Amino acid sequence: xxxxxxxxxxxxxxxxxxxxxxxxxxxxxxxxxxxxxxxxxxxxxxxxxxxxxxxxxxxxxxxxxxxxxxxxxxxxxxxxxxxxxxxxxxxxxxxxxxxxxxxxxxxxxxxxxxxxxxxxxxxxxxxxxxxxxxxxxxxxxxxxxxxxxxxxxxxxxxxxxxxxxxxxxxxxxxxxxxxxxxxxxxxxxxxxxxxxxxxxxxxxxxxxxxxxxxxxxxxxxxxxxxxxxxxxxxxxxxxxxxxxxxxxxxxxxxxxxxxxxxxxxxxxxxxxxxxxxxxxxxxxxxxxxxxxxxxxxxxxxxxxxxxxxxxxxxxxxxxxxxxxxxxxxxxxxxxxxxxxxxxxxxxxxxxxxxxxxxxxxxxxxxxxxxxxxxxxxxxxxxxxxxxxxxxxxxxxxxxxxxxxxxxxxxxxxxxxxxxxxxxxxxxxxxxxxxxxxxxxxxxxxxxxxxxxxxxxxxxxxxxxxxxxxxxxxxxxxxxxxxxxxxxxxxxxxxxxxxxxxxxxxxxxxxxxxxxxxxxxxxxxxxxxxxxxxxxxxxxxxxxxxxxxxxxxxxxxxxxxxxxxxxxxxxxxxxxxxxxxxxxxxxxxxxxxxxxxxxxxxxxxxxxxxxxxxxxxxxxxxxxxxxxxxxxxxxxxxxxxxxxxxxxx
Length: 648
Fold this sequence. Notes:
transferase; alpha/beta; about 650 residues; elongated; 23 helices; glycosyltransferase activity; transmembrane helix; Spore Coat Polysaccharide Biosynthesis Protein SpsA, Chain A; transmembrane
């Protein structure tokens, strides 16, 4: 590998690199009417009015003047640091060979606050790279003047280049941590092993006993199975009915943007993680959406996480005019190739007190970060996560996307708020989660071997005694419109929910102690109940048709009361399931969403049947390829759907 050629004698950087005007000959002239920062920047050629505006922004945001100038696009990062190097009489390095950086755990501090990095070229003396702060320029200049030999030992680079070198130098160490940390420290909470301990034995024993029972007493066994499935469907119906009953009228259209908080407290650094893989088609839309967020650019830390071998996505990102708040992080390719592994990798460099997770196709509402921050400020310390609702904007494209929109409305604006209000554990959605960064690290972050890392993490937070609450400010997405794409996505979800349930049930007694009996039963309904309901949905229709046929022709042996009762229960479960999903979704939707849905709700039975197909695929995939990530392709959203009406 050929790295940069480091100068034998570090001399003045290239002349003529001042930002706006020729530089003053003195480094820090005596300007009594300016602060130290303004004086230093004036020496770099910046006009006083611009400095005054930057200084005011820095005071308001609790940042630095140079940070505000760069974040707001008033100065390019490289041009600024080249000019600083010129003023200090030091070399400026525009390329850093990561092979000349010694890796250690301490190295990661430079991802959080890039200031200094020691290079050890094999054929030259060591070089100390620095990213000087504006307020330190006077001190650095004085040291160089006192010891001119420092010029041969120091060089200047940009924060972005320094961080990139650090990412590259420690890539394999971080990759191992991102992949293995949860399993190494808390193996019972990791899905790396599908059946843990006695789970495989119990599953095999249960299957064998069921087969024996079917052979020995088929009618009694089928009746017991029938009653068990009816109870599972009924439990899911009652959970959603309770959510519907507690929804108030003014919550029916809850996905409205919050009002500004009205205070002027300095905003903290807010990090955003976006895992990207084969997303070259939508990265422009993603960056435009993130640029619209109502948060100071100088207090944003946006990490775009890409597989290092995903050349098209990396090329598309590098072709965009990304602001200083963006950082492209290349994740070394390795198995499992999953979103949670990439998120874990990026978390190592997160600088924010809070961190949000978005998907490539997301368009978060402008005020979502503001609402989340205010929510964390007002919430107790045990509230570790805030989930924003997901609103589907292409419900009018196909019956699949229409029913997907209905399902998401019922879940994010109907069921989850009720679970959160009751203090019950809830599976997170795969995007628009906002975390306290410290709490996220405390619970072990994401499981790279779980293909629905969101649901797993939401439950793990509850097991640690931490709570999740729901925001009102939404994120807009488009749903799959093609059947094959929808099935692949739903197969992955079912597979991940089964992984999560198996992890939870490795120690059921411990789970009860952590989340309580109410939480335990809720998880059974949400995770195992939904999966079993999907798997058995065709059987429900089969039972109804079979018993109805026997009753019609008076072919039932003995008393037909039991059969009639079973038909009534099955009909109530089937149509009750459709009805409560429809009512919960419609009540949560806004007018334009209901208009897009139209009468496509009548296809709910078919929607559940293909859901059943996806659930059965998930069962077989869990055995053959448990960590395979079925990628959902995304496309650019039509302009008319990017900003749906808020109040209607």
